[in-house]
Amino acid sequence: xxxxxxxxxxxxxxxxxxxxxxxxxxxxxxxxxxxxxxxxxxxxxxxxxxxxxxxxxxxxxxxxxxxxxxxxxxxxxxxxxxxxxxxxxxxxxxxxxxxxxxxxxxxxxxxxxxxxxxxxxxxxxxxxxxxxxxxxxxxxxxxxxxxxxxxxxxxxxxxxxxxxxxxxxxxxxxxxxxxxxxxxxxxxxxxxxxxxxxxxxxxxxxxxxxxxxxxxxxxxxxxxxxxxxxxxxxxxxxxxxxxxxxxxxxxxxxxxxxxxxxxxxxxxxxxxxxxxxxxxxxxxxxxxxxxxxxxxxxxxxxxxxxxxxxxxxxxxxxxxxxxxxxxxxxxxxxxxxxxxxxxxxxxxxxxxxx
Length: 354
What we know:
354 residues, alpha/beta, Quinone Oxidoreductase, Chain A, domain 1, 2 domains, 6-stranded parallel beta sheet, 11 helices, 27% helix, 24% strand, ADH_Zn_CS, Chlorophyll synthesis pathway protein BchC, oxidoreductase activity, oxidoreductase, NAD(P)-bd_dom_sf
């Protein structure tokens, strides 16, 4: 079978790769659809090293059908089931994070497509040892959710965790989202679903053509370009008035954006930082204390996030399709990476069989 292999930092190619062996308790998934994540772009362009050992098959947002099961695999599943993975490959099962069911935060977690072979190929193995500890690493995919858009449930679950679970947003509150990429756009949609009164999407000039229109379709009531000379705090105050902004989602990650979020959020408000950037913060933190602002570092999701976004999508209340800007065969996946690097795409769905 073919797969997109990261063989050195920032170097990828489509190679013939070995089909995974299905062990005694393992489940083998036929990948029907996968999507390129912003994290994949970082691996592709060399901004991030492989989190495991080279070579590795990339891809961690995917859905498919169960193709094979080991003789002692969990009988909850059967061959032919439509499934979606939350991309965990292994956890320790013993640490405080695992104890609470926050398996994504396990310090020994291995991730499909990041530290072990992933889904930009035809088959992926879900280890039986993982299923024994964490049975909800795999979910049944309702027939109402098309296989083509199902991989987008992964960033949607991220946004659900950030806005609803970590952000504690209540209906009628105002929300600001920095960053008009997939996580920012899903955060806009989650704020809409959760009943936000005003949703302000803040992005760059390059977002005006495609990403801002998508954001408005998904629920943004206002869009602002974060450009030179723009007084964001004043603009947001005009929109939100004395109620202020209860929640800021930083889906951009730049230190300057976190500073702006702290300035914009109201006293006793919450900032959830989804975006990542390894540059030093470089600003004073006194305003965090004076305003009693809570800053939450975000990483992933949990079973509740996944269960609820699947329910929302199956009920037709979560729009996945509007974020798909391109559909490409595996043979053209490198073109997809270039489109994302140029910010001319939102989400790109890959057909691994083509």
